[in-house]
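ok trying this again, last paste got cut off
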Amino acid sequence: MREHVGDVIRQEPCTAPGHAGVLTVTGLLPSPLEKPTAPAPQRPTPRDTRTAPEPKADEVLPQLFRHTRYLLTLKGRPPFRLAGMETSERLQHVACLSLDMLAQRYEPRLAQLYQGLQAALSPWAQTYQELRQGPAWLRDIADILEPSAAHPPHAAQGAGQLRGSLDTVLRLPDVTPPFYAFGLHLDTVSRSYWPGLFHCDDVPSVPRTNNELESHCRDTGRRLLRTTGQQGLTQRTLQRQGAWELLPRLPTEGQFLGALCHTPPEDVAQERQRFAAHRQRFRLQRRSLKQTRAQFEQLRQRWASLQPTGTG
């Protein structure tokens, strides 16, 4: 993928000296922000009062390029979230968005991105369709091992459902050798864990797993989920949104507000401005497909508001 689209997605607009390529940990080393120099006031003309400044292509394309770079760094969460499958699917969405934008307005960099994505994804289209069956088998097994609260689990019933699912996988016709070997692997692993898989289903007072005993270790993750809306990005979120998550928090909200009152309002406003500018670089780096679709729709609308070119 980087061979086909690496040159175009690495292009970034010029920034102020000293800030290009620097990833700051917000809140650790505050430095005074440069005050923007306002242009000399000009007398507005009748045309200026009726029209608003038009967005530029350089305000839309870098966000799409950053999102493409982000997709090439996705980490998997086995066994259900596989990075290669997710990356291929999400890059297809980027290609579709690029094609829609090209139909409205031609831009050489956008055309290069679309052509590069198509050239990189086309050889693996058939393989991607075949590999989608594997995660489906894993999800079926997960549904059997984690029954809903409305239907209390029973050891014999759960074991029978899992045995039937594994037998169905092994007896599927026209299965390629890699998938047949994967089915055998699922059956072998399930047999090795079989004595303890359903032991606790018939004992209501015993939890099925030890996840309830690990709540203390997940406290930081829950805090980040409440403040950022993202789950499973502890290290990345700390690097992007501030090191104060590592500091001990005050026990009550009143003590927190009392400590905040000692901070000058100018410093708070300056920190908020620094935080907003820092976070803007990662606006389209969202793992949630729903959020990404909403952001793509905003990019599509902004692109449609640009002046059309001679070819579209």
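PB: full thing came through this time. Residues 133-203 form one domain.
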